[in-house]
Design a protein that fits this description.
The chain has about 130 residues and is of the alpha+beta class. The protein has a single domain, classed as Nuclear Transport Factor 2, Chain: A (Roll). The protein has a 5-stranded mixed sheet. The N and C termini lie far apart (about 40 Å).
Amino acid sequence: MTTRDDVLAIAAPPEEASQLAAAFAAAFNAGDAQALDRLYAEEGILLPAPGQPVTGTQRAAANRKLLSFGLPITIGLRHAYVAGDIALLIADWSICGTGCDGDRIDLRGTATDVARRGADGRWRYVIDNPLGVS
C-alpha cells in the first residue's frame, strides 16, 4: 500500500529535469493536489486552455478540476532539453476513462513545458502548457 510519505517522496520536485513529468504523474495519480502544486515555481503558470494562463490559486483549482475526474494520467516524455537551469520538456499525456460522474473522458495532448532548477537544486514548472501549440 502506498502511504502519503511515499507519494511525497515520489512527487517531490526532482533533481533531474527529465523526471519532472514522472513526478507530476505520481502526484496526479495519487490524487494529491498539494503535491501537484509543489511541482510549480511560485510564479509558475498553467495554461488550462490556449491563451488563458493561470497561476496561484487558479492554477491549483484547474489541476483540482482534472483530479476530480478520478482518472489516472499517463505521461510519456519525448524530450528534455536542458540549458543550465532552464529546461524545455516535451511530453505526450492522456487522461482517459469513465469519470466519477459516469461520463466518458478522453483528454490528451502534447505538452510543451518550461522548467527551472531552483536554488535547492530541484526542478519545477515555470510554464505548464499541456496543449502545446493547440
